[in-house]
Amino acid sequence: MTDRIALAARNNALWVDTVCRTHGLRGAIDDLAWSAPSRTPPYYPDAVTLSPDADEHEVLARIDGSDGASVKDSWDRLDLAADDFARLATGQWLWHAGPADGAGVASAAAPALRWRRLTQRSDVTPWATAWAAEPDAAGILRPSLVEQPGVLVLAAVEGGTGSTHDADDTDAAGRVVAGAVLFASGEGDERVVGVGNVFAVDDDVHRAYREVTAFARSLVGDVPLVGWEAGPGLEAALAAGYEAVGRLSVWVR
Fold first, then answer.
1. What is the SS3 string spanning 39-99?
2. Per the confidence metrics, is the pTM higher than 0.85?
3. Of 39, 61, 104, 226, which is least packed with CB atoms within 10 Å of its CB?
4. In the predicted model, is pLDDT for residue 209 greater than 70?
């Protein structure tokens, strides 16, 4: 399972780096970890480990360790308690191998919502407002995300039902009721597509995960889908056909 964890962790780290770049912050990456020299946007870690061999001192030396700093421990092997960090969350890395491997449960379900890929900056603001758990969080995911390499912002809007997958339709008119972000990374056998920021304004995250996965398959084919979740999100992902491939922790100071 280690290779799958490594691919999922690297995809996640590159996604975090992409979000940081939209805020004018550039991180650094090597075989051990991705890290940012100054504090990252809320909800996004200051470091992501990329090897089970990364140790506490190496990781913490790379970040601003002020209050609120966070580290994503991709193999759940670090102990940062002595450095005044506490575990904020423990989750699972996810892997969806695609219909050919029998994991495509979500692909068979007819979607109940109308899904769009957003390509205009102006469409991201209402999407981010729907995604944000708190009003101040809406500014974390910025409109320029739709212009970043590898990023696909997906939205379900009110205004109809049925198996509507409009991959190239930029008309996002209507209230956003669910969404997600896809992020592609790697080449050849290491190519994966991250699935993250899955949400539903009615809290039906199970339906959101099923339909996001089906829409993702219509866009990227049988490329493995990866991500991570905890709690209800993990339950929804597993029900949608994802496999849990390894535990991770998020530490916060």
1. CCCCCCCCEEECCCCCCHHHHHCCCCCCCCCEEEECCCCCCCHHHCCEEEEEEEEEEECCH
2. yes
3. 61
4. yes
